[in-house]
Amino acid sequence: MSDAASSAPGSYYQRHIFFCLNQRNNGEACCADHNAQKAFDRCKAQVKAQGLAGPGKVRVNKAGCLDRCAGGPIAVVYPEAVWYTFVDESDIDEIVSSHLRDGVVVERLRTPHDVGR
Is 47 helix (H, G, I), strand (E, B) or coil? Predict the structure, then answer.
């Protein structure tokens, strides 16, 4: 396992990003209505292209509702527990290169702490 992964003892991945892809059919706000699938696909492709995917590195996963719909679309990176709201591919690229690769949180994309459902 890489030195970076050892910063999270017992963790199989150094960082794990979850994208809410929840779809609501009752008219309530949901991440799926804000191109969350496209962002997930972009992140997964960028992580792979930069050689960041795999054990001891980064894992990109789909998630159901993360219960922060008002800030959607939403993704969260662990182990740091940093919540992001993003708009387009350039935001995803910045999360990948800054946070997932270099470990530097993208402050401008952080979801405010008081944003919930």
Answer: helix
What predicted TM-score, i.e. pTM, was given to this entire model? 0.88
Which SS3 state, helix, strand or coil, does residue 16 take?
Answer: strand
Name every residue whose Cβ is closer than 8 Å to that of residue 102 and which is 6 or more positions away in sequence. none
Closest Cα partner for 100 from 80, 70, 73?
A: 80
DSSP-assigned beta bridge partners for residue 26: none
Q: List all residues 6 or more positions away from 55 whose beta carbon is below 8 Å from its beta carbon.
A: 1, 5, 12, 13
**Distance, CA of 22 to chain centre:** 14
Contacts of 32 (CB under 8 A, 6+ apart): 21, 22, 23, 24
Q: Which helix (H) or strand (E) holds 46?
A: helix 36-49
Own/partner long-range contacts of 5-11 (Cβ < 8 Å, ≥24 apart): 5/55, 5/56, 5/57, 8/79, 11/79
> What pLDDT score was predicted for residue 5?
42
